[in-house]
Amino acid sequence: MKKLQVILLVALSSTLLLFGCGDEQKEQKQEIVKPVIEEVDEEPVADKPEENEEQPEPDEPEEETPPEEGMVRSRITNEWVTEEVDNTRPIAVMMPNTRTAAHYGISQADILYECNVEGSITRLMGVFQDWSDFDRLGNVRSSRDYYIYWSFEWDAIYIHFGGPFYINDVINRPDTNNIDGLSSSNFWRANDTGNSTDNAYVDTEGILADVKKLGYSLEYRDGYSDGQHFQFAPDSDPNTLEQYSDSITANKIDMSPTYPVTNSYFVYNPDTGLYDRFQHLSGAADGPHIDKANDKQLSFKNVLIQNTYFEVRDQKGYLAFQCHDTTRDGWYFTNGRGIHVTWKKTADYSPTRYYDDDGNEIKLNTGKTMICIVEDGDSFLVDDVKYSSKN
């Protein structure tokens, strides 16, 4: 059997200095929940077919003609990109999600994560494959350690602005290539948000300067998968989910029950075939989630909901999430429909894989993907019907 890694949460007590962005620094004695890696057995390999049983010949994939010479299918979105873009490591950028946040460049994220942090607010992490031309990217905000583990599976250069001491073990690992706005001279603050912390930005030139200074490679590390992160359906035969008898209609995916401060939700647009993202942040008006750099609304071809085991670490409400697992469930939405899925992630640099209820890896459609991390026990609404974890 293969071995895989599961993060277990182990409580250790010590007195440590709690620090975050700017004026978040405070000294406090508290219980620490710390990620620990343990080896566990993976599920058994499926039975092999009988020796004399005839197996059908696999269909030969049709050769695709790129729209321009030198373009290839993106390993992240399956869209056509240049070979240079596809062979350059992405960046993963931490962003706040409050009414004072000003999002610049966020609509260009190929993958966007949303997950709760303390106080039921959420942080966003955008994974950008092509980050060659940003003149303003942010706001950049503080890290949480579970986001770092999610960035590993993309082999991304992780960009943040400080963070609490819970990140120290993983952020100081020699294989964690991170750029911290607290120690970089290439970030700047713009007084346009009315907030003293949600106002830090960086640009492509500054990121490249830090990459060079810190000695990070722009090429994917040895041993990282050369293939696509997800399985994708061909553009000529998109995944409609209609092949599943138990698929559900999904015109609106409402995450308000699990994100009660952000109140984010997605509405399917049949004209574009995308899920448009909206938010009703506490203290702000309900409306589309807009990128201030180009006035575009955030939209996604795929929406994944990932139910995840979590624990509350301390009295301040800091959270810990189990990033490696083999038995948790979730949902996949695309083209106005949804199905129940299960997910597993077996190692830091392995992708999270999603499977239908027959055990087959699902095929996403070409385009951007939203990943909503949901605390076990929380619910969400699809066309006003409540759904929650089956674990």
Summarize the structure.
The protein has helices at residues 83-86, 145-152, 168-171, 204-214, and strands at residues 3-18, 26-41, 71-73, 80-82, 91-97, 111-116, 122-128, 137-138, 157-160, 178-180, 188-189, 200-202, 231-232, 248-249, 252-254, 265-269, 274-279, 287-288, 290-291, 296-297, 299-300, 302-308, 310-312, 319-321, 325-334, 337-345, 353-355, 363-364, 369-375, 379-382, 385-388. The protein is globular. Strands 5, 6, 7, 9, 10, 14, 22, 25, 26, 27 and 29 form an eleven-stranded mixed beta sheet that branches. Strands 15, 16, 17, 18, 21, 30 and 31 form a seven-stranded antiparallel beta sheet that branches. It has a three-stranded antiparallel beta sheet with strand order 8-12-11.
Pick out its properties.
7-stranded antiparallel β-sheet, 391 residues, 7% helix, mainly beta, 4 helices, 31 strands, globular
What do these coordinates show?
The protein is built from four helices and 31 strands. It has 391 residues and is mainly beta. A hairpin with a 4-residue loop joins strand 16 and strand 17. The longest helix has 11 residues. The chain is globular and about 55 Å long.
